[in-house]
């Protein structure tokens, strides 16, 4: 799912959220919509083929 967002300064960016069922498994923001679409396709392909998604950059205590 790609959402178009606008900053307070008026700049547009695209927020991509990839879910598996109801669980959010990956999210990332992009300045260019084409890049957001390509990343979303790649992440969905990884999920469909059973390959692991790249790990999140940060972990919370809950993840441990």
Structure description:
By secondary structure, the protein is α+β, with helices and mostly antiparallel strands. It has one helix at residues 33-48; strands at 2-6, 12-20, 23-30. It has a three-stranded antiparallel beta sheet with strand order 1-2-3, with helices on one face. The N and C termini lie far apart (28 Å).
Number of helices: 1
What structural class is derived from the secondary structure elements? Answer: alpha+beta
N-to-C SSE series? EEEH
Strand content is 25-35%
Structural domains: how many: 1
Give the CA-CA distance, first to last residue: 28 Å
Strand order of the largest sheet: 1-2-3
Radius of gyration, in angstroms, nearest whole number:
13 Å
In this structure, how is the largest beta sheet organized? 3 strands, antiparallel
The helix content, as a percent range, equals 25-40%
Topology, element by element:
Blueprint: E1 2-6, E2 12-20, E3 23-30, H1 33-48
Antiparallel strand pairs: 1-2, 2-3
